Prior knowledge:
CATH topology of the largest domain: Rossmann fold
Shape: globular
Order of helices and strands: HEEEEEHEEHHEHHEHHEHE
Low-confidence stretches: 1-25
Radius of gyration: 19 Å
Number of strands: 11
CATH class of the largest domain: Alpha Beta
Mean pLDDT: 90
Structural class: alpha/beta
Distance between the termini: 33 Å
Largest sheet: 6 strands, antiparallel
Number of helices: 9
Amino acid sequence: MDRRPELRFRNSMETPLARDAVEATAQFPIPPGVFAETVTEVVHYTDRLFRFRMTRPASFRFRSGEFVMIGLPNALKPVFRAYSITSPSWDDELEFFSIKVPGGPLTEHLKAIQPGDTVLMRRKPTGTLVNDALLSGERVYMFSTGTGIAPFASLVRDPETYEKFDRVILTHTCRDVAELKFGLELVETVRNDPLVGEFAGDRLIHYPTVTREAFVRTGRITEHLESGKLFEFLGLPVLAPETDRAMICGSMAMLRDTKRLVEGFGLTEGANSAPSTYVVERAFVD
């Protein structure tokens, strides 16, 4: 069945860029080989961060933690960028968490979407931050900064994660306290969810930190990991390849430093084809 609906990209008219995007939709058809889905909800957290939900194609299947390429129908050759799906594989809709990059080829326009607008999505999901890429263990640490929490938002809402690990430790480091809101709401939603809540319970541990404002925990997660503050606060032993697994998603510097640290504890990188004790995601939004 042809799922390409009539274009409905009705961006806010507040900026010239938004007006240009609206005009563009009247000129450019939906490219072949992509889904064209309808935005159902948009929530702005700060002037830098927002999330949105959209309809899910009936034929679309993915594993929690994977990402897809999304774009907008505002050019003959639309700009596509990798976005982790924050909703779990069982959700009826698809959710994404995005940063707003000034002048970004995609996000400059994406930040203006409203319910009813059209978002393009390529058909093939992929990614390494999936349960299949890790060996089973007692604990899994999900290390994230900023919008790097996105794939973990999917995984902590998936019952399979709690079947594979006894404890799920979600760390989230942001610059400002306001930027933690997505993660705080996420954890509360998981614990109150009728499907996942009974699995998560007190097995889901949230460990937020802030780098530029006063907060109960300040500093980069790499500092907490290297100094042992993380384990001391949680009352858990340090990382060990026999019991612990790690997933890492964030900036290039954070990936590099966290990867070095977990390897120092004896963890080795895994992949879909060769599961091991830690995995890293290298796909980024502009």
